[in-house]
Amino acid sequence: MSITTTNQGPVTRITLDNPDKRNAFDNTIIEALIDAFEQAGADAHTRVIVLDAAGKHFSAGADLNWMRAMGELDADQNRADARRLAALMSTIDGAAKPVIARVQGAAFGGALGLICAADIALAADDARFCLSEVKLGILPAVIAPYVVRAMGGRQARRYFMTAEVIDAPRAGQLGLVHEVVPAVDLDTTVERLVAALLAGAPGAQRRARELVHRADDSAVEQAVVDYTADLIAELRTGAEGQEGLSAFLEKRPAAWRHE
Length: 259
Ligand code: ACO
Hints:
This is Enoyl-CoA hydratase. This protein is an alpha/beta fold. The protein has helices spanning about 25-40, 65-70, 75-95, 110-115, 145-150, 155-160, 170-175, 185-200, 200-215, 220-235, 240-250; strands spanning about 5-10, 10-15, 50-55, 100-105, 105-110, 120-125, 130, 165, 180.
C-alpha cells in the first residue's frame, strides 16, 4: 500500500503508507497523492485535509531509484515526469480545503515540499528535516518555491547548500513548521487545529489563502513551477546527479566527497 485515504466526518486523512521504504514517493505515489488531494477537495463532506504518515518517519522524499532511472528516459519524458512532481506541490498548495501536515521522524528532501505547501505544519519534537539534495548531486528544485516562502531566501541559501540536518525546534524557528510539540501530544495538537478550522466559515477559509498570497505577494507563478521542474529534470540526469544518486543507492561516498 502506498497511500491510504480515510474519512472521519469532516476530516479526510491522506496517509503516506509505505514505511518500509520510509514513505519515499515515486511517480505512482505522486499520481495517487494528486488524485487523493483532488478528490478530498471536491468531496462535499470534507472540511479539512490532514496529511500524515505511517511508521517512524514522515517521508524520505523522492524515491531515489525512480530519480536515478529518469536518466534512462528521453529528455521530453523526463521533463514531463518532473512536471508531475511539481504538480503535486501545486495541488497541495492550491487544495480546495485547508491542509494540515502532521510530521514525525525524518522529513527529507521532497517531503519538505509537502510540508511547506500545506497551510499548517505540526511536528513532533523528534522530527528532523533535511534539504539533502545537494549531497545527491541535485537540488530541492520543485519544492523551492514553497520552502523559500516558508524559511526565507537567506536561510534557504544556507540549507540548500549545506544539507545540514535541522532539528524540530530549529525548524520551528525557521518557519518550516508552525508548532513543535512532544510526540505524545501530536495527535491532540492536530485535533485542536482541526477544531479551530471547523469553527471557521468554509467560504471565507477558501478565500483566505488567496488573500495571503495577494497580501504578501507569495503566490507561486506557473513559470517558476515550470522552471523548477525543468531544473530537476536536468540535474537528476546530469553527471553529478547520476553519481550522487548511484552513490546513495550503492551505499558508498560520492566521487566529490573529501573526508
Ligand atoms: N529513496 C529510495 N530508498 C530510500 C530512500 C529514498 N529517498 N530513503 C531511504 N531509502 C531506503 C534505504 O536505501 C534503505 O534501503 P535498504 O533497506 O534496501 O537498505 C531503506 O530505505 C531504509 O533506509 P535507512 O537509511 O536504513 O533508514 P533509517 O530509518 O535509518 O533512516 C532516513 C531514514 C533518515 C530517511 C534515511 O533513509 C535517509 O537519509 N534517506 C535519504 C533521504 C533523502 O536524502 N531524501 C532526499 C531525496 S531527493 C528528493 O526528495 C528530491
